[in-house]
């Protein structure tokens, strides 16, 4: 009641109320929107960090999953099908898929890196061709090849293209690399297989057979508490490969190549390891996405030239950029890794990083299911490989899905921070190192990061005979116990990504939430887009989607004790900006100074009292939740800003009011449907909208409203509110839309408590209000089928809009300034 009185007393002249039935309908809808996932247990349960466990098919994400479209399969209807075994390439021709009279010629050309030392984006095709010429199989001597088939009478018109990678031992060594001789040490091969944007939960949803093989057949250890340390792939892979944060690299991430960074494969290479690095989708690769990559080939085997070539082939990728011919690009990568593992020299150890961006990067979530057959084939081959007994295999992801509808759910935000990680050790490893394996299993339910994975790889390097420089990293080897008291700060996890802390939901229209959302939009505009201010549209807050408040346990410290909330409140707010409809998640702190350790942290009035308008707001992190393709194409540099920016249009702003826009739409599209309110069974054309808006505007004029008067609207999403918005813009009246959180079931009784004189009025006859408690309140209109004492019904206001006031309405509308 206090909040209502405050709002009315400040701004309202006429109050419009919605009926109970309509509010009840919207209330049910609101419950669906704010439903929260239900924990089924705890992944991590330490004294300072409790990570909840959720069911993969939690009801809050079911609708998102049901709405997803399946991934288009790679082409299976080509006239040629290639298979490879080792260095032998076999061709099968489906003549029923060829045109009549076509005699097929198929030839191979090498694909090689071009301008090594100067560019990471150039390749060339070899001049010499090797053709099948009636044979069904060829022995390949080149590392990467392009296969082209054409009818002999049209040799320049390709009808089939494919790209293949082969392990050629004599060429898969960097001649310039200096290596040291190491003997009498255990040199385990290390195979890292990464898949972009896969959370542990989504792995359980769509790769269940892979999980079964890992846990049952390979005795893999899942690291359930793995938490990402940055928003996207780069900070997480940098942590994995260097043990460092991005700000420790001491280079421009966009302008300088990454050749001189202390990437861990360099240490393996110095110990005579053969090294391999491959990422599909060359434009999305971690070190190449708006970056310069590696000017000099970084590893012995580097598939980037082959991916660059295949992405220029319309035939090879005719079913999507996740395909090369009839195979997934991921299957091409795994094929080469299998061939590497099958190399005849078991004494030569390997370090390999295979990372797939397609088809998982952009989603939907279900698309990773297409990777299951290839992964199963690879894991079964690995299980029987001679390398199994002399290698460590790590299957991982960089983070969960970061875009799309799932990010509008609370569980989606949680998943995005909790990527997949499994560790497979040699069968004998536990017998030789029982404490290491016991620690690894114990750490399965500890808070860990990619810094720790890096520290674990360093321990394998030391075992292999390496002498390593110190790295200023928070990483701890997973072969030793991770401290039970470890916090997010200890682990190197910023507050925006820390999932150790408990949250409670806040109403999207809570005053502090709205302030935090406005602060986030201002931060985007004035800080994140400062360097490109002249090229982007000014952003505004369209609406708040959801909000969570980080709460304390036991009257003060949060569960992650390193983040003590006695001096500030921390909110996670999801919001939509305009123009463009960009969706963001922002982490915002409100600093209120040293607080009461016994204070209530569950939000509501206590939060509003702690975080007042005079208190400082700090925006810690803002991340984009939906795709921004096409919205920031005006930027050719400053790529860090692309996810936040909406390019300014070239057309000038139109100086017109909303009332004029409605009139123009009625003139141009009069008979076309303009508004549909299904729950009210109301449909209106543009002409009907204008006519009813004019009637309503004339009704308000009959009450004596003047330009600059104020009207408070207390209602939900119903047709009458839209008519109010249109009509009030015609007469130059200012509006205040009261928060939906003020809902109750008996508005009239509330008003009679504030204005007792209403009870003495006549039913349906408006009473000119005189109230000391609400000195600015003058008239009350109610959207209701009932007539109440002292208030005017909405329908009666419509009927009061006499045609004789049309001239006055035109005069008022002409005086409205759109500014």
From TrEMBL:
Pfam families for the chain: AMP-binding, DUF229
A cellular component term, taken from the record's GO annotations: extracellular space
Domain of life: Eukaryota
InterPro entries: Alkaline_phosphatase_core_sf (IPR017850), AMP-dep_synth/lig_dom (IPR000873), DUF229 (IPR004245)
Residue intervals of the AMP-dependent synthetase/ligase domain: 663-751
CDD domains: ALP_like (cd16021)
PANTHER family referenced in this protein's UniProt entry, alphabetically: FI08016P-RELATED
The protein, known as: Acyl-CoA synthetase family member 2, mitochondrial
């Amino acid at each position: 009641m206090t909040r209502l009185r405050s709002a009315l007393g400040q701004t309202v002249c006429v109050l419009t109320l919605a009926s109970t039935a309509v509010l009840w309908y919207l209330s049910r809808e609101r419950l669906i929107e704010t439903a929260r996932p239900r924990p089924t247990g705890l992944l991590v349960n330490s004294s300072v960090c409790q990570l909840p466990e959720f069911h993969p098919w939690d009801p809050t994400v079911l609708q998102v999953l049901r709405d997803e479209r399946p991934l288009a399969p790679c082409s299976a209807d080509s006239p040629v099908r290639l298979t490879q075994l080792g260095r032998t390439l076999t061709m099968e021709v489906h003549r029923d898929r060829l045109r009549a009279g076509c005699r097929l010629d198929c030839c191979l050309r090498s694909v090689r890196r071009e301008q090594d030392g100067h560019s990471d984006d150039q390749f060339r095709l070899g001049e010499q061709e090797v053709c099948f010429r009636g044979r069904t199989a060829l022995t390949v001597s080149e590392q990467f090849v392009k296969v082209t088939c054409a009818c002999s009478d049209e040799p320049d018109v390709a009808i089939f293209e494919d790209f293949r990678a082969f392990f050629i031992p004599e060429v898969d060594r960097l001649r310039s690399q200096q290596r040291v001789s190491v003997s009498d040490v255990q040199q385990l091969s290390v195979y890292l297989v990464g898949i972009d944007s896969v959370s542990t939960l989504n792995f359980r949803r769509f790769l269940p057979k892979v999980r079964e093989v890992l846990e049952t057949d390979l005795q893999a250890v899942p690291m359930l508490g793995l938490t990402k340390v940055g928003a996207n792939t780069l900070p997480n892979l940098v942590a994995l490969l260097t043990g460092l944060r991005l700000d420790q690299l001491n280079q421009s991430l966009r302008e300088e190549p990454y050749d001189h960074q202390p990437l861990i494969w360099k240490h393996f290479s110095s110990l005579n390891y053969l090294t391999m690095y491959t990422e599909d989708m060359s434009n999305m690769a971690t070190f190449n996405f708006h970056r310069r990559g590696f000017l000099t080939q970084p590893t012995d085997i580097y598939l980037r030239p082959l991916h660059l070539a295949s992405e220029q082939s319309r035939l090879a990728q005719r079913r999507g950029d996740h395909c090369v011919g009839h195979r997934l690009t991921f299957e091409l990568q795994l094929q080469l890794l299998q061939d590497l593992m099958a190399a005849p020299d078991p004494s030569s150890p390997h370090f390999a990083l295979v990372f797939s961006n397609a088809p998982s990067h952009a989603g939907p979530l279900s698309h990773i299911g297409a990777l299951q057959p290839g992964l199963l084939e690879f894991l079964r081959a690995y299980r029987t490989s001679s390398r199994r007994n002399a290698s460590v295999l790590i299957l991982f992801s960089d983070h969960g899905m970061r875009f799309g509808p799932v990010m509008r759910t609370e569980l989606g935000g949680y998943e995005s921070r909790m990527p997949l990680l499994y560790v497979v050790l040699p069968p004998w490893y536990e017998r030789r190192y029982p404490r290491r394996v016991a620690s690894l299993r114990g750490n399965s339910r500890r808070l860990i990061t990619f810094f720790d994975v890096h520290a674990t790889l360093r321990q394998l390097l030391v075992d292999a005979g390496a002498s390593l420089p110190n790295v200023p990293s928070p990483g701890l080897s997973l072969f030793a116990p991770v401290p039970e008291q470890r916090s997010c700060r200890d682990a190197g996890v910023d507050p925006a990504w820390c999932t150790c802390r408990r949250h409670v939901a806040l109403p999207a229209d809570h005053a502090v939430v709205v302030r935090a959302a406005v602060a986030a939009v201002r931060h985007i505009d004035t800080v994140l887009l400062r360097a490109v201010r002249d090229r982007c549209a000014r952003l505004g807050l369209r609406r708040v989607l959801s909000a969570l408040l980080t709460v304390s346990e036991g009257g003060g410290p949060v569960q992650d004790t390193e983040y003590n909330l006695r001096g500030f409140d921390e909110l996670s707010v999801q919001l939509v900006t305009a123009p463009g409809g960009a969706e963001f998640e922002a982490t915002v702190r409100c600093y209120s100074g040293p607080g009461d350790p016994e204070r209530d942290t569950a939000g509501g009035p206590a939060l509003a009292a702690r975080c007042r308008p005079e208190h400082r707001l700090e925006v810690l992190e803002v991340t984009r939740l939906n795709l921004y393709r096409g919205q920031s194409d005006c930027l050719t540099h400053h790529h860090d800003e692309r996810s936040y920016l909406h390019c300014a249009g070239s057309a000038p702003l139109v100086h017109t009011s909303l009332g004029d826009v409605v009139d123009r739409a009625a003139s141009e599209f009069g008979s076309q449907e303009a508004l549909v309110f299904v729950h009210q069974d109301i449909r209106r054309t543009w002409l009907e909208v204008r006519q009813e808006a004019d009637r309503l505007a004339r009704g308000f004029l009959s009450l004596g409203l003047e330009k600059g008067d104020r009207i408070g609207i207390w209602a939900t999403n119903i047709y009458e509110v839209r008519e109010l918005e249109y009509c009030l813009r015609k007469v130059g009246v200012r509006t205040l839309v009261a928060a939906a959180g003020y809902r109750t079931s008996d508005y009239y009784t509330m008003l009679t408590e504030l204005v007792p004189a209403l009870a003495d009025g006549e039913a349906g006859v408006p009473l000119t209000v005189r109230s000391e408690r609400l000195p600015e309140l003058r008239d009350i209109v109610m959207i209701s089928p009932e007539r109440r004492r002292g208030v005017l019904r909405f329908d009666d206001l419509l009927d009061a809009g006499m045609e004789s006031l049309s001239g006055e309405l035109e005069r008022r509308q002409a005086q409205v300034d759109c500014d």
